[in-house]
Design a protein that fits this description.
By secondary structure, this protein is mainly alpha-helical. It contains five helices and four strands. Helix 4 runs antiparallel to helix 5 (162-169).
Length: 170
């Protein structure tokens, strides 16, 4: 089979074997550029990415009749919210990572799920604590998360959140 396919990103023609699953729209070279950019250690790329994700989720959730519009943007998350939280998770008190694809990487979360991403209803928590990823790590992962968070809380003499930790995460 000598089929030539054109990549929609770089507009170059390649043999179909240079595409993942043989016929995807991006060639392997363009697909790998996206992946390497996602794994980049540049914090601003990560925050732009999670801002775009939050905005797209907010658009989808308008159809589910969530209250309010998406009010957050990159500047609010990176300059205001991150400093307001002292670069720590408000639930577990673990330091938030600014590096994509790392442990404790920052993820935008809604405090009240019935309201959209507003300035008052948004917070940064580790990706491991976010609802969508809880089931991926399972109970063993959550126990590790709780023990790590408890260690951070004990080292900062913040034992008042112990009940909140178990209630919010489990």
């Amino acid at each position: 089979m000598n089929e030539i396919v054109t990549c929609v990103v770089c507009n170059k023609e390649y043999h179909y074997t240079n595409f993942y699953n043989n016929y995807k729209s991006r060639c392997k070279f363009c697909s790998n550029k996206v992946v390497s950019k996602l794994r980049s250690t540049e914090p601003s790329y990560h925050f732009k990415h999670i801002t775009e994700l939050a905005e797209s989720r907010a658009i989808l959730e308008r159809f589910k009749e969530k209250e309010g519009d998406c009010e957050i943007d990159f500047d609010y998350i990176y300059f205001t919210l991150l400093d307001k939280q002292h670069r720590r998770c408000p639930i577990t008190n673990v330091p938030l990572s600014l590096v994509a694809m790392s442990h404790w990487q920052a993820s935008v979360d809604r405090i009240n799920d019935g309201i959209n991403y507003t300035l008052e209803n948004s917070r940064l928590i580790p990706y491991e604590c976010n609802t969508r990823s809880k089931w991926y790590f399972g109970l063993a992962g959550l126990k590790i998360l709780l023990s790590t968070a408890k260690g951070h809380n004990d080292s900062r003499n913040r034992t008042s959140n112990k009940g909140l930790l178990e209630m919010d995460i489990c």
